[in-house]
Specification:
Blueprint (H helix, E strand, L loop, with lengths): L6 H12 L5 H4 L17 E4 L2 E4 L4 E7 L5 E7 L6 E6 L31 E2 L5 E2 L4 E3 L4 E2 L25 E4 L3 E4 L4 E10 L9 H9 L5 E6 L6 E4 L3 E4 L6 E4 L1 E3 L9 E4 L3 H11 L43 H30 L7
Helix pairs in contact: 3-4
Length: 359
């Protein structure tokens, strides 16, 4: 800096530049505070992991939801009084319609209070807007036809969550999804060739045997199902080598086909559970592919039988399942269903692809 009086000019110039420098905090002695932008009417709320944030009231809204995802109570801290307040409360009929005078938004007022049943938005029409269809909670039916009607021919084209409103929720307006991932639903049609009336509880009893280690299996009789349970008398055949009589209580192909396969069983729940275990991917404990050792400790396993290659371990009465077997059942059914759905989607795409002539 020179002594000809121009130094003060240079200093002022430096100060003016530093006040606008990118490294402003380096030169400023006081914290530079930027005021928040003025609020507009465009943004009213946005979702959070626990509920919503009311942008107008500067208020976090927390929601208590039931097992179906229905918003029951919405609450938050009042910005003025700093006390807890309930801003919305909802009671529902089984198919989702609000009880009279329950809930502060009946036909949509453009707020977070519209997101009620299964986290879907209540429209001005009174419909709930799912991804693929609009739902009418007052009649318990969709307004639009099911886009997957051909896949679920045994269902109505308009029913909601396959009429399961307690243990399942609707998946985007397409199909019901069970709340508990450890629950398996197996639909079967029964072909009775016994010559007499079968046990009325055989399906439930077989399902109870398969329901172990935290897994719940429901075997449901459905005349329109593709999987067949044939109930027949036990057969006695001659061993081709020893010529001894062999009694067959049940049988099936070990192809893992749980969709349109078939099992044959006598009128006995243990036998039926054993054969359905094969369809769910479980081998005999004495097979080479078995993860369960063929030992005395596992003699009462469900997948043992009188055909055990070790004569002293033969047993056709056990019903036990190891945790690994339960896991294999769950994984087999899950993967099989996913692969089948993927193939159906690929086939639908092929049908929808125009040919070279544009038809």
């Amino acid at each position: 800096m020179s002594n000809n009086g121009s130094g003060s000019v240079e200093m002022r110039s430096f100060s003016a530049k530093s006040a606008r420098a990118m490294e402003q905090q380096t030169f400023s002695l006081e914290e530079q505070k930027t005021p928040p932008p003025a609020k507009t009417a465009d943004l009213k709320f946005f979702p959070t992991s626990e509920g919503f944030y009311d942008y107008v009231k500067d208020q976090y809204i927390y929601q208590y939801k039931d097992h179906l995802g229905n918003a029951r109570i919405s609450f938050g801290r009042n910005p003025q009084t700093q006390t807890l307040e309930i801003v919305d409360a909802n009671d529902y009929y089984p198919f989702g319609m609000n009880h009279l005078k329950s809930g502060n938004a009946f036909f949509g007022s453009g707020s977070y209070k519209n997101y009620k049943m299964q986290e879907q938005e209540l429209q001005e029409t009174g419909f709930y807007s799912f991804k693929w269809r609009n739902y009418m909670p007052d009649v318990g039916r969709f307004f639009n036809m099911d886009p997957l009607s051909e896949k679920y021919a045994y269902q109505s084209h308009y029913n909601f969550s396959e009429n399961r409103v307690v243990n399942a929720r609707e998946l985007e307006g397409l199909e019901a999804v069970l709340i508990n991932e450890n629950t398996i639903e197996w639909r079967v049609k029964v072909d009775n060739k016994l010559g007499f009336e079968a046990s009325k509880t055989i399906l439930q009893d077989a399902a109870d045997i398969l329901s172990q280690n935290g897994l719940k299996v429901n075997i449901i009789e459905d005349p329109k199902a593709l999987f067949t349970v044939e109930l027949a008398l036990a057969k006695t055949v001659e061993d081709p080598v020893t010529k001894d009589p062999i009694t067959t209580n049940g049988y099936t192909q070990n192809d893992g086909n749980i969709y349109d396969g078939k099992v044959v069983s006598k009128n006995n729940p243990r036998t039926l559970a054993h054969e359905m275990g094969h369809k769910a991917g479980l081998p005999h404990i004495f097979d080479e592919t078995s993860k369960i050792e063929n030992t005395k400790e596992n003699q009462k396993n469900l997948m043992n039988s009188g055909a055990n290659t070790t004569e002293t371990l033969q047993d056709s009465s056990g019903t036990n399942l190891a945790p690994s077997q339960t896991t294999d059942i769950k994984n087999h059914i899950k993967v099989t269903n996913e692969n089948r759905e993927r193939k159906e989607q690929e086939q639908q795409k092929l049908y929808q692809t125009p040919n070279q002539n544009g038809n």
